[in-house]
Amino acid sequence: MSLNNSSNVFLDSVPSNTNRFQVSVINENHESSAAADDNTDPPHYEETSFGDEAQKRLRISFRPGNQECYDNFLQSGETAKTDASFHAYDSHTNTYYLQTFGHNTMDAVPKIEYYRNTGSISGPKVNRPSLLEIHEQLAKNVAVTPSSADRVANGDGIPGDEQAENKEDDQAGVVKFGWVKGVLVRCMLNIWGVMLFIRLSWIVGEAGIGLGVIIIGLAVTVTGITGLSTSAIATNGCVRGGGAYYLISRSLGPEFGGSIGLIFAFANAVAVAMYVVGFAETVVDLLKESDSMMVDPTNDIRIIGSITVVILLGISVAGMEWEAKAQVILLVILLIAIANFFIGTVIPSNNEKKSRGFFNYQASIFAENFGPRFTKGEGFFSVFAIFFPAATGILAGANISGDLEDPQDAIPRGTMLAIFITTVAYLGVAICVGACVVRDATGNMNDTIISGMNCNGSAACGLGYDFSRCRHEPCQYGLMNNFQVMSMVSGFGPLITAGIFSATLSSALASLVSAPKVFQALCKDNIYKALQFFAKGYGKNNEPLRGYILTFLIAMAFILIAELNTIAPIISNFFLASYALINFSCFHASYAKSPGWRPAYGIYNMWVSLFGAVLCCAVMFVINWWAAVITYVIEFFLYVYVTCKKPDVNWGSSTQALSYVSALDNALELTTVEDHVKNFRPQCIVLTGGPMTRPALLDITHAFTKNSGLCICCEVFVGPRKLCVKEMNSGMAKKQAWLIKNKIKAFYAAVAADCFRDGVRSLLQASGLGRMKPNTLVIGYKKNWRKAPLTEIENYVGIIHDAFDFEIGVVIVRISQGFDISQVLQVQEELERLEQERLALEATIKDNECEEESGGIRGLFKKAGKLNITKTTPKKDGSINTSQSMHVGEFNQKLVEASTQFKKKQEKGTIDVWWLFDDGGLTLLIPYILTLRKKWKDCKLRIYVGGKINRIEEEKIVMASLLSKFRIKFADIHIIGDINIRPNKESWKVFEEMIEPYRLHESCKDLTTAEKLKRETPWKITDAELEAVKEKSYRQVRLNELLQEHSRAANLIVLSLPVARKGSISDLLYMAWLEILTKNLPPVLLVRGNHKNVLTFYS
Predict the structure, then answer these.
(1) pLDDT reported for residue 853
(2) What is the rounded distance in angstroms from the CA atom of residue 191 to the CA atom of residue 417?
(3) 747-753 and 776-780 as β-strands: parallel, antiparallel, unpaired?
């Protein structure tokens, strides 16, 4: 193929990223050509550059001697283009062409635009040249639209650039966060909850420093493993908004993601109420101390909580930027409060603090507090259950993944660093408070040791204080009794109160933002149709204002209840369920071994993730067993709901990958299993064409293959290869989707071939996989064989011969109306199109009427004119098409009814099996399988076999014995002894009239003429052939008589298919046999197995 470098030829495709590949620009005129001819040196191309300095800059390379041409080119008023001005397909300009790797090609270099999803917010998707465009011959004269070509050449962008520019404009005001403000700050604030200030000292008092560290370590093990799993999933591709829901749903699929997403969003909404109530309780305690109560403690909590959540809602609705600023301020307060505690531990204690149990760092106190001292009703797991919620909150950053600049970098870095920092803080506080404060103290400064008193051996006693009476009566101070230990130890007590406020408010604010974001992502995916209302976003940041309102209402409801002790364990278990599924997602994706699982964050292990998932489930029961049960029940219910609804999404989940791996492993394992007659099942190739065009043929085949055997709907495209392949590829997915939609358990396969027989031959040889290969060919009877071209008949009979050659059984199905309903489908499509046009027309007229009602008299005239136009032209066309369509529809009404006859439940009746020839048992097995189906269960088997007239009873007993050994139930057995007698004259006359147009009648002609006719029409039936197989012809006609006599009222007839010996029986004679054999009968299945046993009576 030669390339013509004129303006009418598509030339090189151009890489748009010049920092990766350099592009040579060559001036295309006579001077440059002459210069090129004079120059014998090879072209000097610049080396490929990967440097950033080449960004948005075009490097020009030219041959020696072309410098002047290039200068003239620039001086002519045209400037060199930057890489942004070239489209991937742009190689057409008036002045120059482009070269990639030094030669002309349409191949495009790798670009990120080719791999984006349609509608990606990060940039426009660009389609690379298709394989067809690269592979097919390049047209010599390709018409290029000047407007589009010039637009691209002039740097106006590519089709779709306007949308991309609009998206960029829309993104201009969007607030995006880095890993510090977006993830680290949020996670730290959420993990450092109120538990740090008012419960950690009590946990150390109960469990001791040793077990306390173990409790913190166990909790961090759960969150740390979950953090690693989250990091791995988040770095395995682009992460959008939705946080934990997005990560789980894209990994495990919509069933798991949809169930956990809803309860995770609800848990965050209720968590807002929990944190706000915690804040309100602290405020109420302060009001009590100052005797400033408003009503009573419960109502004061409700009032303060309601006001607080309204303020938090205002901050959230104001925008993510304001919310982020508030979080930073709260973090600063929290850090100051923690630092205040550590500073307080080294400030010398006074007598008041000593009486309350604080003695600064003392080795004796550390030793005494190192071991556990659980009070009545408490134990390791109960204390762990109280502490664990303090370690949660690691998903606070991931929950706003849609608002992060680079989620893949921010989530792993921010989450893991937050876990590390908060763990160090928890351990530091636990060890410090355990080394400074005794477990019990009276608070009485007079409880000092007097000389001569016996010391009870406690650390306090050694330090001059006697708190021994705390063993017999309750005390108010010490680690075990005082929740305000950190305030007492700190350098400035009110800062601890400020820290409590900061911890509660920041956690509430993070949950108030997380819940709507996760809920919005869930609603956008349309998994729950009823929740689509909440998918809408507002403003530059696509803020879920409707979700904010819903979260606010849920939080307000639980704040007004003001009793969260019951709901709190359930919420903790909801969060743990999310952690468990994230860990399981990481394990599942790794275990599935999908090539698409390539996380950039490599510090994870699939078995560690599985251990983390199991640990999360165990912790759920440790915290509260009944709450864990409720969580599992809710999640299971939602899982079943989403599974039943079957949302139309495809996210490439690991569940899909594992399904493939399991199927592949099972298929490979199946190849090691030898075939056995007991495990035989019909595995069928069905020549349906498009599966929707011959539904009856597919239905009867599906009836005996469903849940038991392989069924492949096959179509052969005959014609020019290029057109056939294009049509075939375009319809593959649609036709397989039709099978799935109609709940038909079958595959669709298609081939393009030069003739129909070649295509079927390819399918017979290549279809299937391993042991799952077809063993039976199912075809419809060729009803129009007498009018069909000879080649079609040759192909039809030829595929039967081919099937027998490949030792594949054959089933030919005949129904009175035929199978092909493609014309009916065309009529239905036409009617649907007309109906859509009618509705669109009515909508347009209605809109015009609404617009013109305010236009006065002038609008009235316009209205009349438009109505005349719209009502005349379409009405004429539509009426003609509709009448024609209705005519065709009425004509094919019987065909439509016949096409659905096997979908219906069959009436009570019989399936008559004419088992005339032993083919291995397939003729008997297929009807037996049919009787096992619900639609055919009311049909009984009647068996007809040939026999001798003088031994009818004996042969009947023999056949009954054989069927009983095969364990096949039957209603009756008929021995037909008169099969081989001649048919009556009328029947034989019908057969002779049928074959008359195809007979050669060479016996009536002289030898020369006869030989000439044989050469000219070798397909005709000769007298010699007819005489040689006359007895077989008699048998087919006689069998029809017997079928008319015995099986006319049967629901279905299954009959042994006669075999035409190759080279002996002409195609037309064989078709005449099939025609006369099945003429004027109920639905008939002509069956011939491959003469290998498919039935056995051995166990």
Answers:
(1) 55
(2) 12
(3) unpaired
Tokens of 744: 């038909």
| Nearest-10 Cα torsion for 952, 958, 962, 968 | 50
Q: Please state the rounded mean pLDDT for residues 38-52.
A: 40
pLDDT digits (tens, 9 = 90+) for 873-901: 344 343 334 444 444 445 567 788 888 88
d(CA 317, CA 314): 5
What's phi and psi for 466, nearest 5 deg? Answer: -115, 105
Question: Which amino acid would we find at residue 995?
Answer: I
User: Could you tell me the CA-to-CA distances from 916 to 541, 838, 976, 1042, 1056 in Å, in that order?
Assistant: 77, 58, 9, 12, 6
* pLDDT (average), residues 1001-1025: 85
Q: How many of the other CB atoms lie within 10 Å of CB of 1070? A: 22
Of the listed ranges 382-396, 729-743, 773-787, the one predicted with least confidence: 382-396
Judged by DSSP in three states, 761 sits in helix
Whether residue 912 contacts residue 931, with contact meaning beta carbons closer than 8 Å, is answered with: no
Question: What is the token pair recorded at 628?
Answer: 């864990």
Over residues 1020-1033, mean pLDDT: 90
d(CA 310, CA 549): 10
Give ∠ CA 1063-1069-1071 in degrees, rounded to 5: 110
The stretch 922-934 carries a mean pLDDT of 93
> Tens of pLDDT along 717-772?
998 888 888 889 888 889 999 998 899 999 999 999 999 999 999 999 999 888 88
SS3 per-residue string spanning 289-358 = HCCCCCCCHHHHHHHHHHHHHHHHHHHHHHCHHHHHHHHHHHHHHHHHHHHHHHHHHHCCCCHHHHHCCE
Residues ≥6 apart with Cβ < 8 Å to 635: 259, 260, 263, 577
CB 702 within 8 A of CB 744: yes
Burial of 631 (0-12, 13-18, 19+ CB in 10 A): buried
State the Cα–Cα distance between residues 817 and 819, nearest whole angstrom.
7
Q: Give the pair of three-digit tokens for residue 352.
A: 């008041």
Q: What is the pLDDT of residue 174?
A: 67
Q: What's the pTM?
A: 0.69
> Three-class SS of residue 584?
helix
Tell me the percentage of the chain whose pLDDT exceeds 70. Answer: 81
* Alpha-carbon 677 to chain mean position: 39
**Between β-strands 1084-1088 and 1052-1056, what pairing exists: parallel, antiparallel or unpaired?**
parallel
DSSP-assigned letters across all residues of 798-821: HHHHHHHHTT-EEEEEE-TT-S--
Average pLDDT over residues 316-329: 81
- Which of 762, 768, 663, 669 has its CA nearest to residue 715? 762
Report d(CA 272, CA 274) in Å as an integer.
Answer: 5
At 46-60, the pLDDT tens digits run 333 333 433 333 343
Of 790, 796, 799, 800, nearest in space to 1021 by CA:
790
Structure tokens at 550: 């819903």
pLDDT over 90, % of the chain: 28
Residue 534 has, within 13 A of its CA and on its CB side, a CA count of 22
Mean pLDDT to the nearest integer, 690-703: 92
